[in-house]
């Protein structure tokens, strides 16, 4: 069994996976949770790690190859010189293990102790409060005998 990539039709990745699984074809459609700001509110959404592509695990001699092109949601088989391009098992295993690590980390959580690595508050310990847009965060620092709420760039945070 070897992994291959299929290109799916625009916005039909889930549909392609569903129809491939209905045909008992092993699929891998990696998704990650991303945060986006919509109408001033932070929302979490699952998005494909490789937009437009689904991975399938098949034998070269499997009769399912003939059905792949006509599967709903599938656009084409990724090929070179009219031959499906195989993907090493190690690559797929690495993607799966990396996704597990990302899921475990989950970003900075409110109340987490952090250190500021850049800017005027460099070296100070702080407590993460919340995100403030795409590139900034609100943190609490102990400064001048009391706790101060300040906005810092996300790049200056070292967790």
Automatic annotation (TrEMBL):
Residues 1-99 form the NusG-like N-terminal domain. One of its GO terms (biological process) is transcription antitermination. GO terms for cellular component: cytosol. This is Transcriptional activator RfaH. NCBIfam families: PRK09014.1, RfaH. Gene3D superfamilies: NusG, N-terminal domain (3.30.70.940). The lineage of its organism: Bacteria, Pseudomonadati, Pseudomonadota, Gammaproteobacteria, Pseudomonadales. Keywords: Transcription, Transcription antitermination, Transcription regulation. Pfam families: NusG. InterPro entries: NGN-like_dom (IPR006645), NGN_dom_sf (IPR036735), NusG-like (IPR043425), Transcription_antiterm_RfaH (IPR010215), Translation_prot_SH3-like_sf (IPR008991). It comes from Marinobacter nauticus.
């Amino acid at each position: 069994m070897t992994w291959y990539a299929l290109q799916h039709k625009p916005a039909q990745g889930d549909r392609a996976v569903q129809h491939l699984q209905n045909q008992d074809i092993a699929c891998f459609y990696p998704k990650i949770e991303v945060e986006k700001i919509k109408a001033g509110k932070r929302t979490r959404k699952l998005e494909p790690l490789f937009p437009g592509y689904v991975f399938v695990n098949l034998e070269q001699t499997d009769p399912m190859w003939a059905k792949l092109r006509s599967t709903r949601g599938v656009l084409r088989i990724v090929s070179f010189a009219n031959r499906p391009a195989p993907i090493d098992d190690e690559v797929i295993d690495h993607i799966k293990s990396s996704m597990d690590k990302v899921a475990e980390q989950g970003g900075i959580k409110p109340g987490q102790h952090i250190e500021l690595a850049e800017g005027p508050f460099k070296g100070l310990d702080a407590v993460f409060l919340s995100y403030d847009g795409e590139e900034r965060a609100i943190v609490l620092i102990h400064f001048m005998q009391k706790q101060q709420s300040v906005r810092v760039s996300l790049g200056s945070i070292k967790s």
